[in-house]
Amino acid sequence: MEEEYLSNEYFMHQALIEAKKAYKRDEVPVGAVVVANNTIIARAHNLTETLNDVTAHAEMQAITAASNFLGAKYLTDCTLFVTLEPCLMCAGALFWSQLGKIIFAASDPKRGYRLYKTPVLHPRTVVDIGILQNESELLLKEFFQQKRSIGT
């Protein structure tokens, strides 16, 4: 029996489900999944407010969960799907994990790693951008509009 190949859109949709979990927890709605061999091995979303930890970004949580699942610190054969471009901190962690591929939905023009115009990802990491970009951007805009309207 031939194994069904799941699309990049499917996996990014799963990351968006994680982002919506963050939104419900009053966290910035960023979600991530790590995929190996066409299977999700880690799911995560922002937990910075919940854990009172500035490093508890979705990507950091996903790296830790995937490494624990694999019993290895390197994620060379894995793909990270994340709803927002990683920040410099997360890009550094992704460098050290030697992630095989990263796919992010929305660019982050204020805090994304690409602002620094230096190679912060591992040289073998492949990057793809824009899958379900509109959905991710809408969720983020809604979250920040709500924050501004209630003044928190």
Low-confidence stretches: none
Number of strands: 5
Strand proportion, as a percent range, falls in 15-25%
**Spatial order of the strands forming the largest sheet:** 2-1-3-4-5
- Rg from C-alpha positions? 15 Å
Figure out the total of helices.
Answer: 5
Element pattern in H and E: HEEHHEHEEH
> Helicity range of the residues?
40-55%
Biggest sheet, in brief?
A: 5 strands, mixed
pLDDT averaged over residues: 93
Overall 3D form: globular
Helix and strand content put the structural class at: alpha/beta
Taking the alpha carbons of the first and last residues, their distance comes to: 53 Å
Q: What do you see in this structure?
A:
This protein is an alpha/beta fold and 152 residues long. The chain is 41% helix and 20% strand. The protein is built from five helices and five strands. A five-stranded mixed β-sheet has the order 2-1-3-4-5. Helix 4 links the parallel strand 3 (78-84) and strand 4. The longest helix has 18 residues, at 133-150.
Which features does this protein show?
about 150 residues; alpha/beta; 5-stranded mixed sheet; 5 helices; 5 strands
Helix/strand layout:
Blueprint: H1 8-24, E1 31-36, E2 39-45, H2 48-51, H3 58-70, E3 78-84, H4 88-97, E4 101-106, E5 126-129, H5 133-150
Parallel strand pairs: 3-4, 4-5
Antiparallel strand pairs: 1-2, 1-3
Helix pairs in contact: 1-5
